[in-house]
Design goal:
The complex is a heterodimer. By secondary structure, chain A is α/β, with parallel strands linked by helices. Helix content of chain A is 32%, strand content 19%. The model of chain B has no long low-confidence stretch (mean pLDDT 94). The chains are: A alpha/beta, B mainly alpha. Chain B: GO terms for molecular function: acyl binding; acyl carrier activity; phosphopantetheine binding.
Chain lengths: 420, 78
């Protein structure tokens, strides 16, 4: 199979717009969480979220008008706007601008989302009930469909290769990158714009996830302390919004055009829990098997893994099960492993999480710096694994693994290696 | 321009993201102002909303220029 490398990165996160703004704040240990101010929350169990800082585009703020015309933004849910921004960033970073018909046909898009335009569906439902069907916009459907993120990106940049989308809840971003890498490895495309995007911060989503008892509810007055993976006081995840997009490219294609190569995607594993719709399997078997599948594909020894970017959502059950599965797979090599959860800082970006976290793993390799698990005051379990509490850590990283686990028992692991 | 024409123009500028000076009486929504078929559906909805009038589908099909819209609304809107 053909080798696949990462040649471009783009992201919009609760820590800022762009890779540089997000990464520097992540390393500083900042939190993107705050009280929700743009809709009514007083009757919601969870009143906090990690939201994108908006502004004129300076100082890491997100100015949507820089990335999509206002008249187009009006037609779509924000997850599409975030995907447009992060895709343009990633393509600019990669320097790949397909102009010929052949190059355009060799470049595809695979962008997923967990719940897509749920905010717009909620609003249109209210319109339908209150004012009737004639007031439903012709843009209601195309502006809410999950694959329209990829559709808009392909139209904007003239990308005529495979056009696909993934919907696997909180594993979406990892599955999108893994599946896109396979399309390149198998020869269906030479370049893929891949990742995840999500705009879930609205009353309906908060009410729904709170009903699943998935969200943190004890820190409404202290939001920056709410996302605290592995800590004794953790009580659920903090919802986040944003997008992470990478440009994946066949290795020889990237080399021939002198592209900057961040990393190689060497392993991708998938598994299903076949256990429960929202709870992870009690023995961590699904998590273990998807990491094992990725390791097998990567054909490396487990001791070569220097860093794991954990799924680590800050839920009471999930964090420890993942930790046990990682301990089990690492065996005697657990003692030299560092594993952090960047969800402590950016929150849980659901369908965008895996893509954003794959980018964090790549940046950790690039800079030799591991982002911290902030708010980890008192770990709930003893472990030989270094959970990188509170402060970033310098460490050379050659191989990184990123985990994502989603509702429905859907799991994905990506393994990336530094290319020297 | 009449009051109706001003209101129509404002809606067209807002929905199609075009310069106000392009929104002239004989400007065709699709050929001159860059609208697609979905945009025209939404424009008609916006006219209905602004002028509190129902525009049936067969009438909507005859509204292809700014002037068509103004004339229809001057005749039919309260």
């Amino acid at each position: 199979m053909r080798r696949v490398v990462v040649t471009g990165l783009g992201m919009v996160t609760p820590l800022g717009s762009g890779v540089d703004a997000t990464w520097s704040r992540l390393i500083e240990g900042q939190s993107g969480a705050g009280r929700i101010a743009d809709f009514q929350v007083d009757d919601l169990a969870c009143q906090i979220a990690c939201q994108i800082p908006r502004g004129d585009g300076s100082d890491g703020t997100f100015n949507a008008d820089e990335w999509m015309e206002p008249k187009e933004q009006r037609k779509v849910d924000p997850f599409i706007v975030y995907a447009m921004a992060a895709s343009t960033m990633a393509l600019r970073d990669s320097g790949w601008e397909p102009k010929t018909y052949e190059d355009q046909c060799a470049t595809g898009v695979l962008i997923g989302s967990g719940i897509g335009g749920i905010g717009g569906i909620y609003e249109a439902s209210a319109t339908l009930i209150e004012r009737g069907p004639r007031r439903i916009s012709p843009f209601f459907i195309p502006g809410r469909l999950i694959n329209l993120a990829g559709g808009y990106v392909s139209i904007e940049h003239g990308l005529k290769g495979p056009n696909h989308a993934v919907v696997t809840a909180c594993s979406t971003g990892s599955h999108a990158i893994g599946d896109a890498a396979r399309l390149i490895a198998l020869g269906d495309a030479d370049v893929m714009v891949a990742g995840g995007t999500e705009s879930p911060v609205n009353r309906l989503s908060i009410a729904g996830f709170a009903a699943c008892r998935a969200l943190s509810t004890n820190f409404n007055d202290d939001p920056t302390r709410a996302s605290r993976p592995y800590d004794k006081d953790r009580d659920g995840f903090v919802m986040g919004e944003g997008a992470g997009i990478v440009v994946l490219e066949e290795y020889e294609h990237a080399k021939a055009r002198g592209a900057k190569i961040y990393a190689e995607i060497i392993g991708y594993g998938l598994s299903g829990d076949a256990y429960h719709i929202t709870s992870p399997s009690e023995d961590g078997d699904g998590a273990y098997r998807c990491m094992a599948a990725a390791l097998k594909r990567a054909a490396i020894d487990v001791s070569e893994i220097d860093y794991v970017n954990a799924h680590g959502t800050s839920t009471p059950l999930g964090d420890e099960l993942e930790l046990k599965a990682v301990e089990r797979i690492m065996g005697n090599a657990a003692g030299k492993l560092s594993m952090s959860s960047t969800k402590s800082a950016v929150g849980h970006l659901l369908g965008a999480a895996g893509a954003v976290e794959a980018i964090f793993s790549i940046l950790a390799m690039r800079d030799g710096v591991i982002p911290p698990t902030i708010n980890l005051d008192n770990p709930s379990v003893d472990t030989a694994i270094d959970l990188v509490p509170k402060q970033a850590k310098r460490k050379e990283i050659n191989v990184a693994l990123s985990n994502s686990f989603g509702f429905g028992g859907t799991n994905a692991s990506l393994i990336m290696r530094r290319v020297s | 321009m009449s009051d109706v024409a001003d209101r129509v123009k404002k809606i067209v500028v807002e929905h199609l993201g075009v310069e106000a000076d392009k929104v002239v009486e004989n400007a065709n929504f699709i050929d001159d102002l860059g609208a697609d078929s979905l945009d025209t559906v939404e424009l008609v909805m916006a006219f209905e909303e602004e002028f509190n009038v129902e525009i049936p589908d067969d009438a909507a099909e005859t509204i292809v220029t700014v002037g068509d819209a103004v004339r229809f609304l001057e005749k039919n809107a309260a």
